[in-house]
From TrEMBL:
Pfam families: Methyltransf_24. The keyword Transmembrane applies. Keywords: Membrane, Transmembrane, Transmembrane helix. This is S-adenosyl-L-methionine-dependent methyltransferase.
């Protein structure tokens, strides 16, 4: 009897043990799996750790990773996507194709001077209305004589005083120069306080039309084209199209950030032997933003 009872107790215990084992089998398996993945994770992360060389002896077979350059970082796909910039300029267009390319791309293959001025603005324009700042300075003549540019980009045009001057100089020298004038033709907030005679039509300050009229007045419509975008967009467009220049004048926004950005974007568009120059290095506008932008640019390159 006792023997039978003992046998029953034993069977019961064995059954319980099996049940307990079954009950804990799953969690144990999970735990083992977790432990395995953790170990593998640690091993693989120690392989790619930036501090690898600090904790292990250097070997001759593994090359030491070099630090990425600013250019590498700026060209990371994530950066390009984030800032929506196109970094690579196209091959340079032959200079004789520059005007037609801009007409095609910006003016739907027509000239903005066709049937100019439009009837609804003609009575609001003056036959000629020029105003510039140092726009006839000796630097223009000096550089045009020296470089004999086929393409000039002016970054910041306003009413076109310096563009008209450059068009006259290139004509005198018998050069076939195209001058591309980049400006949003909005001036700056409050500019009409000083230019009350420039009319406004439905919020448009008519700067581009007056600029075009000024070109008509000196018969320079074949050699000058307005490019009516922000400086950033226009210079990027030139880069995409492969429009490079022999002379680039920078005279748009005079705060540090505008000048810095314009100078850097413009610099990429210089042809070999070309010259980048600008205005207001000595003026105190926005705490000498232009001067600071140039000094910082000079620190980065010795080619400017
Ligand atoms: C000082 S005026 C240019 C004068 C011209 N170079 C001259 O001497 O006859 C500056 C011009 O830059 C333009 N400008 C300023 N910031 C600009 C920007 N971010 N994009 C496009 N044009 C801009 C203004 O509309 C203004 O007409």
């Amino acid at each position: 009897m006792k023997q039978k009872e003992d046998q029953q107790v034993l069977q019961h215990r064995q059954k319980r043990l099996v049940l307990i084992s079954l009950k804990f089998a799953k969690p144990i398996a999970y735990f083992l799996l977790l432990l395995l993945s953790y170990t593998l994770g640690c091993l693989s992360s120690s392989n790619s750790s930036p501090f690898k060389n600090a904790t292990s002896l250097p070997t001759t077979s593994t090359p030491t990773p070099t630090a990425p350059t600013i250019q590498d970082l700026a060209n990371l796909p994530s950066q390009l996507d984030h800032f929506r910039v196109s970094t690579h300029c196209s091959n340079p267009l032959p200079s004789e194709l520059v005007r037609q390319t801009i007409l095609d791309r910006v003016y739907n293959a027509t000239s903005p001077f066709d049937n100019f001025p439009p009837v609804h603005v003609s009575s609001l324009l003056r036959p000629q209305r020029l105003k510039g700042w140092g726009s006839n300075g000796a630097v223009f003549e000096h550089l045009i004589q020296k470089v004999k540019p086929k393409t000039i980009i002016e970054v910041g045009t306003f009413l076109g005083a310096s563009a008209v001057h450059m068009a006259g100089l290139t004509r005198q020298l018998g050069l076939q120069t195209q001058i591309l004038c980049v400006d949003d033709f909005r001036g700056w907030p409050g500019f009409r306080d000083r230019f009350k005679d420039i009319k406004m039509l439905n919020g448009d300050v008519l700067l581009m039309y007056q600029f075009m009229q000024n070109l008509v007045s000196v018969n320079a419509t074949d050699s000058v084209l307005p490019v009516p975008f922000s400086t950033g967009s226009a210079l990027n467009l030139f880069c995409e199209l492969g429009v490079f220049a022999d002379l680039i004048e920078v005279d748009a926004g005079h705060d540090f950030m505008s000048a810095w950005s314009d100078i850097n974007r413009a610099y990429r568009l210089l042809r070999p032997g070309g010259v980048l120059f600008g205005h207001d290095y000595f003026t105190a506008a926005d705490d000498r933003g232009v001067r600071r932008a140039i000094s910082d640019r000079l620190l980065e390159t010795s080619h400017i």
